[in-house]
Design brief:
153 residues, alpha/beta, two-stranded parallel ribbon, 4 strands, 24% strand
């Protein structure tokens, strides 16, 4: 996934968690920090309000992606650090709204994608807004905690 798409994905996940009211405080804080940074550094160049109203809108995500590229925010180290922080927190958050159980593909154009043996109890693989030319192979993926069977004695 390219950097502008990663930035948009982080913003979508943060906005979605906020709208659904399921975000932990750490997720809210990281999302607010990222959006504040974007609004401060790229005022008038990146419009987050439309995305925040409807984060699932593909067209709004694409406009945001274009804004990120045209403003140069995808090359801004402070933005990238804030994005990484938000994604890290979302990854460990139990309330993350959009991490898939198993595999989630959305708006993917590909020549080849091969996904194999996936076992998931929370978490998995999400590919969004990807244009792939050539093979992407994801082999054995195990995600989340395995439930241990209770032994009867």
């Amino acid at each position: 996934m390219e950097i502008p798409s990663i930035i948009v994905t982080a913003l979508v996940l943060g906005a979605t968690a906020g709208i659904k009211g399921i975000a932990e405080q750490s997720v809210k804080d990281a999302y607010i920090a990222l959006t504040h940074l974007i609004k401060t550094k790229y005022q008038g160049q990146i419009n987050l309000e439309l995305l925040e109203k409807s984060p699932d809108s593909i067209s709004r995500q694409e406009v945001l992606r274009e804004d990120v590229i045209s403003s140069g925010a995808d090359k801004d180290k402070e933005i990238l650090i804030a994005v990484a922080s938000l994604l890290d927190i979302l990854t460990i958050s139990k309330t993350s709204p959009s991490f898939p159980e198993g595999v989630s593909l959305e708006d993917v154009q590909a020549l080849n994608i091969k996904i194999k043996d996936i076992v998931s109890e929370g978490g998995g693989i999400a590919i969004r807004h990807a244009k792939v030319k050539g093979d992407i192979q994801i082999e054995s993926v195990v995600s989340g905690k395995k439930k241990q069977k209770k032994r009867r004695i």
